[in-house]
Specification:
Elements lengths: L4 H8 L2 H16 L1 H16 L3 H48 L12 H43 L1 H16 L5 H27 L1 H6 L3 H50 L6 H35 L1 H6 L31 E8 L9 E8 L5 E4 L6 H9 L6 E6 L9 E4 L8 E2 H5 L8 H10 L3 H7 L4 E2 L8 H14 L4 E5 L7 H14 L4 E5 L11 E6 L2 E4 L7
Parallel strand pairs: 3-9, 3-10, 5-8, 8-9
Antiparallel strand pairs: 1-2, 1-4, 6-7, 10-11
Helix pairs in contact: 1-5, 2-4, 2-5, 3-4, 3-10, 4-5, 5-6, 5-7, 5-10, 6-9, 6-10, 7-9, 7-10, 9-10, 14-16, 16-17
Bound molecules: adenosine-5'-triphosphate.
Adenosine-5'-triphosphate (ATP) binds next to helix 12.
Amino acid sequence: MAIAPELWRAAFAHRRYALTLLLAHLAGAATHVPAALALAATLTGVAHRDTSLVAAGAVGVVAAAVVRLALSAAESRAATRLGTAVTVDVRDRALASTLTANRLHDTGTRDGQTLSALTDGVDGTDVYVTRYVPAVVTVVVICPAVVLALALVSPAAAAAVTVGLIAAVLGPVAWKRSTRRRGSAHWDSYEALAADVLESLRGMKTVRVLGAVPAVRARLRARSDALHRATVSVMRTSLADTAVTDLAIQGGIAVAIGLAVAGYTGPGAGTFALYAVLLLASESFRPVRDLARQWHAGYLGLSALPALRALHAFDSSPPPAAQDAPAPATTASVAGGDPPVLALESVRYRYPASDHDVLAGIDAMLSPGALVVVTGESGAGKSTLFDLFLGHLSPSSGRITMRGRTPGPTDIAVISQRPVLFAGTIRDNLTVGNPRAGDAEIRSACAAAGAAGILAEWGLQAPVSEAGTSLSGGQRQRLAVARALLSGRPVLLADEPTSALDEHNAAQVMDALRDAATDRLVVVVTHRLDVLSPLDRVFLLRGGTLSLREPAAQR
Ligand SMILES: Nc1ncnc2c1ncn2[C@@H]1O[C@H](COP(=O)(O)OP(=O)(O)OP(=O)(O)O)[C@@H](O)[C@H]1O
């Protein structure tokens, strides 16, 4: 028996559906007892040529079957509702945590792993709550009840069945740890294969160009073999489980029947007692047999638990980014109010694993009016500074404030080095941060971002392929600037926004950002000094400190 408290809590969060399911399942399982007794009466009637007893017994058997059919329909309905409610909860929470912003340049998880947890892992929880949970409850409630009924007919047979039940339920516990270990090894292999397949599909063009197809194929084959070995290993444990359970069940039934036969007192009441013991002994084990069957069905959900826990799928409160964000400003320009000024006061930052500060006490006031540019050598700490602005990292000491408060994720829009567009239309991509933006607003943001030509050529409804591969790097970059402008956020951070662009396109994007900097704070990190203008405020990040460069020194 594998009890996963999170999954039980997830099920009972929907108390009505969970209780309906349990009651329907328990009642359905309970009908097997009167059915067995009715069958014992029928058989006794046949043995004694008592047609009225045969008829009464047959009616009982049919009535129990009809009731069970009705209960089974109610159980299916409740299971569908409960399974849907639980998987929606679990998937929503896991998705919310997946969609929480991570550091700009590093993330510890692989997309394929996350995808497997969100799909197969979550589906596994459905099977666990709708089939395994009722099976466990039925073992706990129905088995003792049937044993009690059996004890009324034959205490010795009931004792034999009790021993068999204990062995059947507790036997597999002996190698529980090994079962768990093999289960998580199986899930890890499954996730690793999924992650490699997704990565290979995404990088297929590069793989082909590099002539690396055979190497990738070999890696996937090795992953697939590892998954096969892990699956076989799980099957071995499960076969051992089944063998122990079956041995205990068959042994319990055989001893109970032997005792019943030994105590047979001859025709009359003894015949009914004999049949009742034969049938009830078998019925006592029915819930255990069901449990063993459902164990295999719910196993994937159980082994996916660590991955789902890592995605906070069972946390009671949603992660901060999943909470409702304030609605974006309704125009492409920033809503009125004081200008957004980012104040950095003695900001220090040191990575936990490092022995020195990346940022060693930065003081600066960054304000709109001119483009703010941060430049510096590779490794100087520019991305670290952005992560601090975005709240992905917290200063080791000092503070960053915007109008006296800590800037929130919804204050800042980011244009990354490799902007990601999504499958959909150009319009969908532009309005992702501001779904209420109208056509006029979109066109004016595109004009400001130097993307008017793209709209003129393609139109707002033109389809964009996954990851925006149907557009050139420059087109993606300009649409990303338009998208950031449309989001109406008061601060815009651009990380190397011209790295993929030729001189002409780079100048266009920088001009768009300069225009945007009139009414919002625009901070650009770049190595390219050729795209700067004498009007830009250029800061040099070196040795952990930020210093303003003279305009003359910019080129
Ligand atoms: N998670 C981390 N743990 C320890 N050190 C880190 C971590 N991330 C970055 N660093 C170190 O911090 C320093 C600053 O890194 P950062 O990525 O901020 O530099 P950067 O200026 O953005 O570099 P580039 O221009 O190459 O992107 C580097 O020396 C880097 O090795």
